[in-house]
Amino acid sequence: MMSNTILMLITNLGAGGAQRVYYNHALEFCRHYQIEEVVFDDKEDDRLYNSGLPLRSLNIKAAANPLEKLTYFFKRATALDKIIKTQNASLVISHMDGANWVNALASKKVKKILVVHGTVLHDKAQTGWKNYLRKKVLIPYLYNMADLTVAVSEGIQYELKEFCGVKKVVSIPNFFDIDEITAKSNQPLPDSLNDIFNSYPVLVTSGRFHIQKNQSALLKLFAKLKEVNPVVKLFLLGDGELRKSLIDQAKELGLKTYAVWDGTVVNEKYDVYFMGYLENPFAYLKKSTLFLFPSGWEGFPMALCEAMISGVVVLTADCPTGPRQILAPGTYDHQYNLKEAEYTNAGVLLPMADKNNFEAQWISAIQNLLNNEHLRINMAKNARHLMQAYDKKKIIGQWLDIINQVLNGVEQ
Asked: Could you tell me the strand order of the sheet in which 55-57 lies?
């Protein structure tokens, strides 16, 4: 008799988009299956997302060198085998590269679904021989050992199929609780911020402070924008390893900078506001004038979608992967070489930060939208309509169908 137990494997439960998706999946899947979560090492796991579900650990710490990493993959696979056996699991769903590789190497007696959250070809954090090994050896070999690979965007699915030779791969995007986000976006801001949001055009971005998100390029762009539009404000929601360097950069650019970690009083005298991670970022998004998203690469960007659901007009880099699928469904440009602003009904696609005309195109589009309230209203309305395709109930239905097909041996 088939077991009702599904193991969900991830490297860690710390901050990150993949971890948040994993958490959301666990809360939904447990309504239909017996779900148990598994991490590499709970002693080193800085757990941010706590579903309250049973948590098991492979109890193998992070490796210190390449040889140790290779050895640890097999040790983790063996440890996962033991959990599969003791829990009589019928399926393991893994998220992120490391967990996917361990899942693929584990017992052949269990069904396996691997979830890929980021672009394979365009991740600039992956370099050198390790990246070559990942793209040309590990992914082609290991992912084809699984029953199915799920890519969170059509662009990632294309990369896996056409460049990595993964045969059984489908695309299921991330999902959103639209009603919950809408309700939170309608909550009031702290009184200390009302004058700023009511009196000035506010630009906002959100995400981890990381090279992927290009906040450094955004600060340079904003400094140029201030020269032609002195009253505009910029809010950065989030935190990360680049916090200090970004704050220092903002000050070096001559921007009056507020940082929540300094304990100073927030008021309208500042140009740039570093607000940290917020319990309810959606209220900030809703009351901002424009949302700016200059990422260098993505998977299926949650921050962009949450801004669209919250009702703020979005301007995004046409980066790999996700933004084009979200704003202009059915159009494809796998070269990601947009050179001029592309206005859609629901927002604006713009050149990435490594393009020569990045600042000119972004500043022109920002100014255009700041001066056109009617266009902003229409784009925001259309964006919310587009987001209905990613409502939680619809996407969970796709996932449950896929899980049942894999469990029953239906070929994809």
From this structure: 55-57, 34-39, 5-10, 91-95, 111-116, 148-151, 169-171
